[in-house]
Amino acid sequence: MSVQLTHTQTRMLRPKRSIRVFAPFMGFQDNMGALFRLCDAMGVEEVIFGHDIDLNSRRLRKAARSSITALKTRVSPDHKFEIESFRKNGGQIIGLELTDTSFPLQDCALDIDTDILLVIGHEVDGIPKEILQILPQCYHINMYGQNSSMNVVHATAMALYHFRSLE
User: Fold this and answer.
1) Mean pLDDT value of segment 106-127
2) What are φ and ψ of residue 151, in 5° steps?
3) pLDDT at 41
4) Number of domains making up the chain
5) What is this structure's pTM?
6) Could you point out which of 20, 130, 139, 144 has its C-alpha 20 to 30 Å from the C-alpha of 120?
7) What's the CATH code of the domain at 58?
8) 88 CB burial (10 A radius; 0-12, 13-18, 19+)
9) Strand 92-96 relative to strand 138-140: parallel, antiparallel, unpaired?
10) DSSP letter string over 17-35?
11) Residue 7 confidence (pLDDT) above 90
12) Sheet holding 103-104, edge to edge
């Protein structure tokens, strides 16, 4: 019979590429906490927010657990500058948004040994038009139910897992 592993028994894998998540518009504390926990689990190097966040928020801390201290974070309110800087440094920039020109996530091929900046949107409004216009590529999650959207952290989890599975 299988037995759940403890924290000390869990074997952590080492990521082969650097991934940063840029969440310039995320606003809900529970989603921010879930994003911290997810990014720690997926070996994300850094999470970049577009505005100050309250790290003492009970909702954020409850969802994040101890991942707040394990993950590098910073604030960059100049969204366009952040994206352009990453591009100039040779990184691959990927938007996660359903648009009229986006491709299914499973079609996303990653450049070997290239750092990734994954840009995610606001929980309700997604990625604004002015940011979409400067993203070189956007991918979406194919959906099979009745709803036309999904939670931004759930979509981010699927994208990060896809990226790690390509290593």
Assistant:
1) 94
2) -60, 135
3) 95
4) 1
5) 0.93
6) 144
7) 3.40.1280.10
8) exposed
9) parallel
10) S-EEEEETT---HHHHHHH
11) no
12) 72-75, 46-49, 19-23, 116-119, 92-96, 138-140, 103-104
